[in-house]
Specification:
Blueprint: E1 27-42, E2 47-64, E3 73-95, E4 98-119, H1 123-130, E5 145-169, E6 172-193, E7 196-197, E8 225-242, E9 248-259, E10 262-263, E11 280-281, E12 283-284, E13 287-300, E14 305-325, E15 330-353, E16 356-369, E17 389-401, E18 405-416, E19 419-420, E20 430-431, E21 434-445, E22 449-456, E23 464-469, E24 477-481, E25 486-493
Length: 495
């Protein structure tokens, strides 16, 4: 990138941690609206509730897709429209020792997306150097590329569910839940390369064929993407809780879960239309999970001590995650065969003196991919964005200030162990362990006026919420940092 004239910021220089080098349009516009209507009826021995929701979202974005100061690739007028209508009906009743719930849910959704990804003025020089001089700069003229991509999808679904709590004996309760769902999604898209609709047998641009090496074959014709996803599925929940003495609860839960499959709206990365004239099936499989949880909660010393301990195990099939192809610059949902997540969580709260509360929570979680994965580099590895250890202590002190004011002092911290800040698990994406400290001081008057001074990330700890390989640049990574130190004042008044 630097050899082609682009600016490369040295990450070793702390002044560069919150700087970016971009060239190209950076515009964004969002329109959103939503409303909800709720109706309740008392049917005597039962209660009914109906909820209707409508949401509409529209956005338009233009941005520098290569994340550099060199004009290689720009995205213009990336549009998204998303409409969602939902309807839910619930009927609840108490019959003897049972609290019963029966419900139904339906949704109707439509999505339309389009964008133009084209070469900038610096693309020719960049790809010429990337290919070792094999690819001529003239094969990447400004304005050429994926001149138009469109994708539309409609989806409808219905589910029927029940969730019941039955008192079996004093202090002993059972929970039974069951859900059936069915849904259908249909989607299709069109692709235009250099202003020409992609079609089987079309002539490939010079940049998309030998002797140009694969990394320099950018924005090549691809098979149109589309497909249909239809599925029906049952899930259930079983639970048992027991209160042996007042203030102590023991519980066990076993549940199954379901995340719907769908259709990838991104350009296919498997090759040009000369490979296969058929429409590419862009569907991905649904994700399912089986989970087990056992735990205990207790309060002691006149509720001055609260303790909760939970252990869990979750087994995922067809675990869904997003990947980004750095040559086609497309994002797609992929699935791993299996993932297992297991761990222990502990929560503690202690009130040793009037107004003083000490506490926190600690979690040890080990989440790993199974041995059979579509990407062999993931097999047996820890999931990205999944630290093994998370610790969150806090202290709060509350005290009267005069006769009309009350004050709160709050300090809290969050520590996480190292993790890979992306699903790709590349070594350059590793985030070292870090700790954040936050604090606030609040004064509240009995008339409802409150003033608070707060500080987040008090010691200005640098960390990345996401790291990913830079588009079109091997062994170069882009980091998305968390918020730096921030101070502020909030004023509230209750009327």
């Amino acid at each position: 990138m630097a050899a082609a004239g682009g600016t490369v910021l040295d990450p070793a220089n702390a002044d560069n941690r919150y700087r970016i080098a971009l060239d190209g349009p950076m515009r964004s516009r969002v329109t959103a609206r939503a409303f909800t209507m709720i109706a309740n009826w008392d049917l005597g021995g039962a209660q009914a509730k109906l909820t209707y929701g409508h949401r509409y979202f529209r956005s338009s974005d233009s941005y520098d897709s290569d994340n550099s100061s060199l004009a290689v690739v720009n995205v213009f007028d990336q549009r998204l429209q998303d409409r969602l209508d939902t309807l839910e009906v619930q009927l609840t009743a108490t019959k003897g020792p049972a609290d019963l719930l029966l419900g139904g849910f339906a949704y109707d959704n439509s999505i339309y997306a389009s964008q133009s990804s084209t070469f900038g003025a610096g693309a020719g020089a960049f790809y010429n150097r990337l290919s070792g001089g094999v690819a001529p700069a003239s094969a990447y003229p400004a304005g050429a590329g994926d001149t138009l991509q469109t994708f539309g999808q409609t989806g409808r679904g219905i589910s029927i569910f029940t969730h019941d709590v039955i008192r079996l004996a004093p202090g002993l309760k059972a929970t039974l839940g069951l859900r059936w769902l069915t849904e259908d999604k249909q989607g299709s898209g069109t692709l235009y390369t250099d202003g020409v609709a992609d079609s089987f047998g079309m002539a490939l641009p010079t940049r998309c064929k030998a002797p140009v090496p694969t990394p320099a074959r950018a924005f090549c014709p691809a098979n149109p993407i589309g497909g249909q996803f239809s599925d029906s599925h049952w899930t259930y929940a079983l639970g048992l809780s027991y209160e042996p003495v007042a203030g102590t609860l023991l519980y066990f839960n076993h549940t199954t879960g379901y995340k719907a499959g769908g259709i990838n709206a991104a350009k296919d990365a498997r090759g040009p239309t000369t490979v296969n004239p058929a429409l590419v099936n862009g569907t991905f499989a649904p994700e399912t999970v089986r989970s087990f949880e056992i735990g205990a909660k207790t309060r002691a010393f006149d509720r001055r001590l609260t303790l909760a301990i939970t252990a869990f195990l979750m087994d995922f099939d067809n675990f869904q995650f997003q990947t980004r192809d750095q040559t086609t610059l497309s994002t797609q949902v992929q699935t791993a065969a299996t993932v297992r997540s297991k761990g222990v969580e502990v929560e503690l709260s202690l009130n040793p003196a009037k107004g003083l509360t000490l506490g926190g929570n600690a979690a040890y979680i080990l989440a790993r991919y199974g041995t059979a994965t579509a990407d062999p580099t993931l097999a047996g590895q820890r999931l990205g964005n999944s630290p093994e250890w998370t610790l969150q202590p806090f202290v709060t002190y509350k005290h009267a200030v005069g006769t009309k004011w009350e004050g709160w002092l709050n300090l809290n911290a969050r520590y996480v162990s190292d993790y890979i800040a992306n699903v790709t698990l590349l070594a350059g994406n590793r985030q070292a362990p870090y700790a954040l400290v936050n604090g606030s001081l609040t004064l509240e008057h009995r008339n409802g006026l409150s003033v608070a001074i707060f500080a987040n990330n008090l010691f200005n700890q640098y960390y990345a919420t996401l790291r990913t390989q830079a588009p079109l640049q091997a062994n170069t990574f882009v980091g998305f940092p968390g918020e730096p130190r921030m101070f502020g004042v909030t004023v509230r008044k209750a009327f």
